[in-house]
């Protein structure tokens, strides 16, 4: 069972941004930038392109809605996205509020307090449609 499945099943906590029957979005615990969010299908699958085309498009649709909320809640030049999965082999879309190339390089990390995570998640969540 992946760490994200444990989050989905409520075994470990997360800073939740959005959820429906098939997807959950929560803040990355070791963010590249303030507002770095992960969008995760509840059905555990390892690689993005192992998904059916229908499930892939559905994940992108949910990610689009989260990105729109992120754009409203967090000031940045643009929301960038990538899919990696080398650390957690459970499909997830990274949505990163980006101002400079280093924000999307997964080398520079920002430290946030619990209160900052809570406030960020609430503010992104309030913009989610
Ligand atoms: P990757 O699998 O390389 O796409 O990276 C996995 C991402 O998941 C990293 O950015 C981690 O910081 C993030 N991550 C790992 N565990 C958690 C967790 N419990 N809650 C939130 N984010 C996590």
Automatic annotation (TrEMBL):
Q: Which domain of life is it from?
A: Bacteria
Keyword flag Kinase? no
Which processes are annotated in GO (biological process)?
Answer: nucleotide metabolic process
| Coiled-coil region list | none
Q: Which residues form the HIT domain?
A: 3-106
Tell me the keywords, alphabetical order.
Hydrolase
Q: Where is the active site?
A: 92 (tele-amp-histidine intermediate)
Indicate yes or no for the key word Glycosyltransferase.
no
Looking up InterPro entries in the UniProt record yields: Histidine_triad_HIT, HIT-like, HIT-like_sf
Q: Where is this motif: Histidine triad motif?
A: 90-94
Which GO MF terms are attached to this record?
A: hydrolase activity
Return the protein name: HIT family hydrolase
- Organism, by scientific name, is Polaribacter atrinae
> Highest lineage ranks of the organism?
Bacteria, Pseudomonadati, Bacteroidota, Flavobacteriia, Flavobacteriales
């Amino acid at each position: 069972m992946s760490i994200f499945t444990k989050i989905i099943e409520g075994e470990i906590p997360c800073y939740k941004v959005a959820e429906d029957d098939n997807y959950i979005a929560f803040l990355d615990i070791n963010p590249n930038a303030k507002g770095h969010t992960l969008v995760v299908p509840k059905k555990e699958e390892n690689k993005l392109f192992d998904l059916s085309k229908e499930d892939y498009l559905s994940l992108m649709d949910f990610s689009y809605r989260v990105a729109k909320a992120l754009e409203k809640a967090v000031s940045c030049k643009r929301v960038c996205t990538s899919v990696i999965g080398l650390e957690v082999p459970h499909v997830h879309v990274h949505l990163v509020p980006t101002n400079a190339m280093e924000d999307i390089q997964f080398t520079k990390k920002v430290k946030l307090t619990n209160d900052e995570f809570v406030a960020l998640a609430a503010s992104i969540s309030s913009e989610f449609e």
